[in-house]
Amino acid sequence: MRASLIQIAVEPDESVDSRRRRVASLVREQQDAELVILPELWPVGAFAYQQFEREAESPTGPTYEAMAKAASDAGVWLHAGSVVEKAADGTLYNTALVISPAGELVATYRKIHRFGFDKGEAVMMGAGEDLVTVHLPDLTIGLATCYDLRFPELFRGLVDAGAQALVVPAGWPARRREHWTLLARARAVENQAYVLACGTAGTHADVEQAGHSIVVDPWGEVLAEAGVGEEVITVDLDPARVASTREVFPALKDRRLGLPAPH
Fold it and tell me: Whole-angstrom distance between the N-terminal and C-terminal Cα of the chain?
């Protein structure tokens, strides 16, 4: 399976509507890929807290509509990054969208671990509760978002649910870029799974973004890594490599703690 990660530049002088149109065009260009991945909260910027309430939408709102049409035009599975979702009760969530090549919304994931400690996302948004995997034709992906990358138990749960690749859209700050690449490789090695981590470029709400979107294979080898600007990286994923890694080095079978409950 060929996957493309689009590292979008999120700058304050571009309107949300304009960025949606531009990103839709970028998605349409990825017709050689089967899976396309966008970053976290790219319509507004992950640190642009003052815009969250104003730009909140439903999972089938304007971002979905634009991305569904682009996915359908390109004939790709699209992980459309995440949007600020406003639920029926008024709660905001950081919600990822997965769209089929037919333009159908096939999965949503509400971010479980909210960043900010006592401010920002952590106090403005509700926490998700559900682990989410999506079965693509040749690959099962597990969904996580940005700060989730620091919590290995979430990823182990996704692997227990069948994930062969772990998809992590993010708006990761430049000042902690080394953590980003280190944690992406760690999650790949410990779970013997691909990690596809797609970040943003640019600066929003005065927070410089790390860029450096990265794809890591089940042995921890970096297959592709972006720079700091807007960029597309494309890799070929082999589901058989996940199975062979787990067979040749069956560390997951030696687990003693945190095992899933027997059925």
Answer: 32
